[in-house]
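Chapter review. Work through the record for Transcriptional regulator before attempting the end-of-chapter questions.
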Amino acid sequence: MPASAAAQRGLDGKAAFIEAANALGLRTAEPTDESADVRVDVNGRWLAVDLKRFSTVGSDDVPRLVSRHRDPPDGEAPQLRVLVADRVLGEARDVLKAHGWGWLDLRGHLFLSAPGVLVDAEVPAFRPRPDRMSPFSGSVGLEVACALLLEPDVAPTVRGLARTLSRAPSTVSDVLKGLRSEALLLRAGTPATPELFWATAEAWPSRAVPLAASPAAVDSRYAAALRIGLDDFDSEAGWALTDTLAAAAYGAPVGARSDHPPDFHVPDEQTLRRAVQVLGQAETFDSRRASVRVAPVPAVCTNRVDLRSSNQPWPLTRPLFVALDLAADRDRGRQVLEAWQPRSPWHRVW
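Structure tokens for Transcriptional regulator:
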């Protein structure tokens, strides 16, 4: 949980907190003593706020943080302890809440809690100019993150990852350094889970195009041009089933109608355009007969999973990628993920 570079440049937690509080109509003022950084008026009650500024915070970081900053002794003014961070990841929010801490996630969420006080609201994202590029600023960042999450118990070498991904070792090394600086990579070189999963989900593209016809209607003349890839699921890149039907096939607790349309990842943008040309684009997403989206990383459409023995005719993308697609739905999808424990050999990293 390294101190934020933004904080070191003077873009401190106090300025960010005041901006977020004011965006919600909460008044702020200078503190009356040195035990706090700022005061905030919530429902006519002035509370002294003690702020702590960090970059990325995971659930494992919270106990250490809390142990270093004890509650004020009885008799002092009510005080809120608030963590201000570039990212408050995964279960860290629940752990902070359990310890009575609030947080400001600079991506756009403020949570404050005290007896008789509750603020839980979206706020404008605070985006200072970064000193370094985000590890997810390029496609290699997603590729590295996914490779780590697919084998969470393995600490890969830079050159090994570079060979697997067909990327330059220097680029892979830069991404790993970025992940480590964001506390998303453990000292052993294995991914911090579920924090890396949720950081990856934040960067995971979710745009899908609804199709007017199902690829099941395509004859052999078009199947090759569309790169559907039904001959070799393991080594051939092709369409990969994802989202609701894939989750159901893997045993996730998700309800799917018998006529639920299949949703696919396709290998590239050219394949997506051809699919729209051949199958047509549906007027609305709800009226689709299928949907397609370009795979964010090549691994999505390779090493596809054959579950035809379970009456699923389409090759599936691996559970990690299904989970990343489900995570885009902050309500239903995340409820499914909370209860989904994939069977061996797959790993739960969310």
